[in-house]
Amino acid sequence: MGSLGPLGCAKALQLTLAVIKPDAVAHPLIMKALHQKILEHKFIIVKSKDLVWQRQDSERFYAEHEGRFFYQRLVEFMASGPMRAYILAREDAISYWRKLMGPTKVYRARYTSPNTIRAQFGLTDTRNTTHGSDSVESAQREITFFFPEFHAQEWMERLEPSFRA
Ligand code: ADP
């Protein structure tokens, strides 16, 4: 039998970017609950940092939404206070974190997926507690956006071969 890693199975680890948005960072108990959830679900915290965006950072990150009715509200909110960004690793990290997040719209989340983060802690459709990358390409781009010094390839090369993607 091959060696088992931190997840107890020899599956490849995937990286994702998870962000705790300013509405949640403002509440220490919510932050504690979210950190606990990350650990409970067996994510490896590869890196984390607290940061505050300038409005230009917010505009750059959400450029794809420019022109939509919620865009101004969104970019202002995301630059309104501290955030915490994580690089998380896990088997199927991208879809797993998205599932824990729940639907974008908080009221939909409360009806359809009451155990999700957005259902439990989200305030409005904009102030919805968390962000998670939605594809391998966006995870790579977003990890670089938040952690330009991080080299995913080097990190993967230091893992045991059975955990590499
Ligand atoms: P997600 O964050 O679930 O991937 P999107 O990429 O579509 O969703 O949207 C980015 C962010 O823009 C959302 O997390 C939310 O903060 C905001 N947003 C999206 N749709 C709406 C909406 N209809 N009303 C208000 N804010 C919205």
From TrEMBL:
<feature type="domain" description="Nucleoside diphosphate kinase-like">
    <location>
        <begin position="13"/>
        <end position="154"/>
    </location>
</feature>
<dbReference type="GO" id="GO:0006241">
    <property type="term" value="P:CTP biosynthetic process"/>
</dbReference>
<dbReference type="GO" id="GO:0006228">
    <property type="term" value="P:UTP biosynthetic process"/>
</dbReference>
<feature type="binding site">
    <location>
        <position position="70"/>
    </location>
    <ligand>
        <name>ATP</name>
    </ligand>
</feature>
<feature type="binding site">
    <location>
        <position position="98"/>
    </location>
    <ligand>
        <name>ATP</name>
    </ligand>
</feature>
<feature type="active site" description="Pros-phosphohistidine intermediate">
    <location>
        <position position="131"/>
    </location>
</feature>
<keyword id="KW-0460">Magnesium</keyword>
<dbReference type="InterPro" id="IPR036850">
    <property type="entry name" value="NDK-like_dom_sf"/>
</dbReference>
<keyword id="KW-0067">ATP-binding</keyword>
<feature type="binding site">
    <location>
        <position position="21"/>
    </location>
    <ligand>
        <name>ATP</name>
    </ligand>
</feature>
<feature type="binding site">
    <location>
        <position position="128"/>
    </location>
    <ligand>
        <name>ATP</name>
    </ligand>
</feature>
<comment type="similarity">
    <text>Belongs to the NDK family.</text>
</comment>
<keyword id="KW-0808">Transferase</keyword>
<dbReference type="GO" id="GO:0005524">
    <property type="term" value="F:ATP binding"/>
</dbReference>
<feature type="binding site">
    <location>
        <position position="118"/>
    </location>
    <ligand>
        <name>ATP</name>
    </ligand>
</feature>
<dbReference type="GO" id="GO:0004550">
    <property type="term" value="F:nucleoside diphosphate kinase activity"/>
</dbReference>
<dbReference type="Pfam" id="PF00334">
    <property type="entry name" value="NDK"/>
</dbReference>
<dbReference type="GO" id="GO:0006183">
    <property type="term" value="P:GTP biosynthetic process"/>
</dbReference>
<keyword id="KW-0546">Nucleotide metabolism</keyword>
<dbReference type="GO" id="GO:0045839">
    <property type="term" value="P:negative regulation of mitotic nuclear division"/>
</dbReference>
<dbReference type="GO" id="GO:0005739">
    <property type="term" value="C:mitochondrion"/>
</dbReference>
<dbReference type="InterPro" id="IPR023005">
    <property type="entry name" value="Nucleoside_diP_kinase_AS"/>
</dbReference>
<dbReference type="GO" id="GO:0046872">
    <property type="term" value="F:metal ion binding"/>
</dbReference>
<protein>
    <recommendedName>
        <fullName>Nucleoside diphosphate kinase</fullName>
        <ecNumber>2.7.4.6</ecNumber>
    </recommendedName>
</protein>
<dbReference type="GO" id="GO:0030308">
    <property type="term" value="P:negative regulation of cell growth"/>
</dbReference>
<dbReference type="InterPro" id="IPR001564">
    <property type="entry name" value="Nucleoside_diP_kinase"/>
</dbReference>
<dbReference type="InterPro" id="IPR037994">
    <property type="entry name" value="NDPk6"/>
</dbReference>
<keyword id="KW-0479">Metal-binding</keyword>
<keyword id="KW-0547">Nucleotide-binding</keyword>
<dbReference type="InterPro" id="IPR034907">
    <property type="entry name" value="NDK-like_dom"/>
</dbReference>
<keyword id="KW-0418">Kinase</keyword>
<feature type="binding site">
    <location>
        <position position="104"/>
    </location>
    <ligand>
        <name>ATP</name>
    </ligand>
</feature>
